[in-house]
Amino acid sequence: MKKITFIITDYGSFNNFLGDLSVKLIHNSFDITVFTSKEKVIDIKDKYDYLKLGVKFKYINFPRNFNFFSHYKISKKIQAELSKIKPDLVSIHFT
């Protein structure tokens, strides 16, 4: 089974832009993990019951500032999690 990890800054953006793709990939036997915050900049009702379908979420508080150390700290956390998951592809979406 191929593993894909999406990294996107907020859950609402995932739901709006990557939800359909994630569900299609799940139905085609991909393992999907999403790194996101619980924030919903785009606050719409979930298109799918992602958890029930098998999408895994890792919630991260992405920094909204320009502090190098904040970004470095989160980057190290993401790298540590990715080393555990060992995805075949990482797709990054930042606003």
Number of strands: 4
Main sheet summary: 4 strands, parallel
Walk across the major sheet and give the strand order.
3-2-1-4
Average pLDDT confidence is: 94
- Distance between the first and last residues' Cα: 30 Å
Gyration radius, to the nearest Å? Answer: 13 Å
General shape: globular
Order of helices and strands: EHEHEHE
H/I helix tally: 3
Helix content: 40-55%
Oligomer: single chain
Low-confidence runs (pLDDT<50, min 5 residues)? none
Structural notes for this entry:
The protein has 95 residues and is α/β, with parallel strands linked by helices. Helices cover 41% and strands 25% of the residues. It has helices at 11-27, 50-53, 68-85; strands spanning 3-10, 31-37, 56-59, 89-93. Strands 3-2-1-4 form a four-stranded parallel beta sheet, sandwiched between helices. Strand 2 (31-37), helix 2 (50-53) and strand 3 (56-59) form a beta-alpha-beta unit. It starts with a strand and ends with a strand.
